[in-house]
User: Fold this.
Amino acid sequence: MSRFPKYERAGAYHWGKLSNRSLRGYHARLWARYGWFNEHIAQRSGLVIDVGAGDAALTHLLCNADRAVIGIEPEPDALAVGADALAAVGSSARLMLGDAYALPFADGEASVVVMCEVIEHLDRPDDAVAEAARVLGSSGELLISTPNAQPALADPFHVHEFTASELCELIGRHFREVGVWVAEPGWLLSAYRWRAGRIVVNMAAFAGANPFRYCITSTRPQWRQLYARAHR
Assistant:
């Protein structure tokens, strides 16, 4: 797995992004991503495992009274940052030191496994998906978000970025039903980098029509984000 020192430098930066509700500072893209996960576990109870929890912002958002949410994080610095952030808000979520290849849970123990912007950092993504399948029950669900591979925009911290077809093939080796969607068209990201464009997008998000939430079943390479949902 690639070393990920952002939390050493920036602390609980996802929490900071989520707390900014100003028209210029709102992070519609991050809220859309986290919203996708919450939407797909809305009816789920039982154990939810957030693999690669980082500063645990998403881990906390996944919590409700019907779920036990546990974040797994391999970086001690990130784990400490996340634990402090969870304690500060009195979250019911828990964090554990561990990695995607050896989850500390019994076979079939979990209801949902979440991997938000994680699989692109892994040296052995096939092993990680196999491990997710192991800990999920017979009706369990795997949820993944990851960048849609675009060589010109590759992140140096990413071991491998997947195309939609690659991601579907990878997950399909271990899961019976797999769905993959693309989101974030290039024009939207370009507009969002400009002040006026960001304000327009954020206004739409405040009105309940966040354009970053729009997903389609396609292999369009010019769309930047992939989402995948798989069942045992």
About this structure: The chain has a mean pLDDT of 94.
